[in-house]
């Protein structure tokens, strides 16, 4: 059975593609999953259900539709990679980390040194901290090495 | 048995005190808990264990010591109030929200309108969103009203 | 420790009072709990958080505030009594029954013979079906009898 | 692996077929499941076990046989769609919603505006509310879009 | 907090009394619990709910009422003592043992050598096997010895 | 995915074969499992590990080896059929029933009318009671009927 | 409610006493627990049940009796302190650490620098590593500081 | 579906190979898994993430990376074989045993008679104790025999 890796966080750089391409190049049997990463589509996830004049409820509806997907995929994953970039609040990434922690689901954080202090609680429950996508590929390559049978 | 309320998030304003004072004034039987809110003490939580030259590991040690307290108190609470202020990254607050969500522990967020969009996933799993401490007091007063026996 | 009984469902007749009075008369050490049974207050549970022009969201907010209380009390109870009356949809009572069933929390239904067929799934997961409050009192009296020590 | 969708509730209109047909047309990899929707067969589910003169016990036996199927399928599903129509008590649908809520299993309700108030507790724990089957198809299409790998 | 011991099985000899008296004599802080041990009352536990002409359903109703008590007490206990005597089928005692095993709740069996072979699965998941009540008292005395603080 | 049925209990009549043959004739997609039903092999399950002069420990070792298989298969099954025959103590069957009950795993009992009273606790937590293997086949045929997709 | 600390491991030095005395001196509201630390009594825990000629089974019986106590106390504790000394195999201490890890129960290890490498998996799942009892006292003092209410 | 066996412990003898070869010769449908057994690679598991001057943190990082793999594989296995050899502390093997015990995951220990006493707690929660790999093969052969269908 393929190893299942959930990719959470930043959608403005190509870190997902770097990890996926790196793992393909390493020929790893991994099934990647993620939230819907199209920002506009994600914000509009609930729009088909009814029109909303109030911004809070529009966001609320979309967030709850998106949670159907993210919750299911996180629970089915074997490990999550949680990326924090330089911009935006990215509270959803920290939320996913807390969700993983409570489930006992291992996760690896991916962020620059500059974010060490504000991420200390998130890193404190992580199994590893990487600064570059290629390190994540290297860890995954290691984790899937030396299989029996 | 007292209702147990965990207060998570911002430590730079007196929102905790406002809620606690408001609940005392309303004579509610509530036991409040929280992470250690002394910032310097919290950052130094692991310092007694050994000296650390590397900032990451100093933070790591303290974060893990603090997690002994926060994890236990969140799990024992009946509801968490999670506060997001204007400053700082506050990823630990979003982490606590995700932790609650995965446990099925109800939580109420407390933040300004300006933060609605970046907090949509955090609010999407919350039971309520308040903008002022007195609203939290009002909700808690309601929740503890009309007791049988 | 007192036995904890959650009383769910109909708020338009005095069945709660009959059970509580009957158990007091029988001198049983029971702690009763319930949702807030003041209908207007319950519908307005979320009103303090913000004004809502849209009826769905007003109901939504109040329902989620109420769930903080009901979820907690159901989970802490030893048994739930779930009452279906003649009027209204009472879907919240059936919802509570399903909630109990999934948790493995025992519950007793309380309803007339006329409702047997539409309640067959709800009764199918119940530990007992009573038609009158005094039968519930009799069952509880039996359950708390013959204590050791 | 196919996404698994459980369809609960009303058996007197063709909403199941509309959703299934819509998802097939959209080429979604979904495995649908449901209770036995043949009303007479469902009511007679326990008749082969013994004859019953008492209506309560006939219903009871059938309900418990049916629960073997519904409980298993709900637990294996990724999301449930729970439909409330205009007729009948439909307490089994609300029961399924409560069952999902306690398991942390996401569900989407499908009902008209007229039912908003009596369904507020059921909707309060739902991830989304739709009024038409095509909206459900649209949400499912979105949820299965933008897959990695 | 008192140690909680559930006493399951045979109701035709005074083994419960021997254990309770022995523990009192040893001054142990134990809270004992049990199913209702009055045989006639236990068989009639559901009779107040309605009259039943069919023996299966009379037993069924009573068994389900009794389960409200036994399930709750087993789950709250720290250890169960499960007694098998010489007479009767005593399937309820074996059922309680399986229930404990699945919950990870430790239990001690109490039976003669003659029953070793037919009880091998029940003993296989037990933490200990005793043949006499005084051995159970001795084990409990040991378990509560040497307390810190 | 095939429906998984665990067959527990009596090994001296051919009830397993009757159910399996009946389900094959009905073309049902079911995967059956069971404890090792060769009595001598089952009693000797632990003999390869070391010789044992003491009967209790020989039984103990074998019971614990067998439990590796039965525990795993029960947990993976969708429903268990638990058979009680006329002979022997059959405490292992009642143990399996209790194990299922605590896991929330549905089970169907299969036994004659003569055993109703001593099996009342076991039947009380069952989803159905059958007296003949062909009834079990009929129930399984019903449960697997009317599949969507 | 007092904070509950389980003290696991080495019984040949007075580290338990040092921690308990230190916490008393600091006036902390902690309830300590432990396995029975009288070595001879612990080895003989099952002797009252029957005589055993075979060393494996004597140890086995005592280990299982002791597990009734240790399992219960670990599960009820808020944090475990797990001590590794210089002598003996101390596999029971590592076993307790793994038990805590799987339960998500936080634990602190207490051992010298010399043991870092062989304990890396045990430390890897710990919340903290201390080398001296007074550090554990300091951490506990911190964890119980700054209480609200 | 193949039976899944996790092989934990000693990496300095060829016991894994003996068991795998024996099971292949017996034509058993088993999927074996294990930690990475290359000692140097395992110690260096976290080295790609950053350089570490401090031995504790180097070990810590590697241990946490390795735990992503071991935790996942243990949780997915049906049974674990846990081997203790003559050399080294082998606390990771005892840790895995405790982890299995807390999860209710069955495990078999594999060690010489000389280790009986120090391993009594580890053996006390095991389903079986073997002294030679061929005994493990024999037990697995038995467990996979006599399959239905």
From TrEMBL, chains A, B, C, D, E, F, G, H:
Entries under NCBIfam families matching the protein: YtoQ_fam
Organism expressing this protein natively: Pseudoalteromonas holothuriae
InterPro entries: YtoQ_family_protein (IPR019884)
UniProt name for this protein: YtoQ family protein
């Amino acid at each position: 059975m393929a190893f299942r890796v959930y990719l959470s966080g930043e959608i403005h750089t190509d870190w997902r593609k770097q990890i996926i391409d790196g793992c393909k190049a390493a020929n790893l049997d991994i099934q990647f999953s993620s939230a819907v990463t199209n920002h506009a589509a994600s914000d509009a996830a609930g729009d088909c259900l009814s029109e909303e004049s109030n911004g809070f409820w529009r966001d609320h509806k979309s967030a709850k539709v998106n949670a159907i997907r993210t919750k299911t995929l996180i629970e089915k994953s074997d490990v999550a990679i949680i990326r924090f970039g330089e911009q935006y609040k990215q509270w959803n990434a920290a939320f996913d980390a807390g969700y993983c922690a409570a489930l006992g689901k291992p996760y690896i954080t991916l962020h620059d040194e500059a974010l060490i202090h504000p991420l200390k609680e998130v890193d404190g429950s992580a199994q590893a901290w990487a600064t570059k996508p290629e390190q994540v590929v290297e860890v995954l390559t290691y984790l899937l090495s030396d299989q029996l049978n």
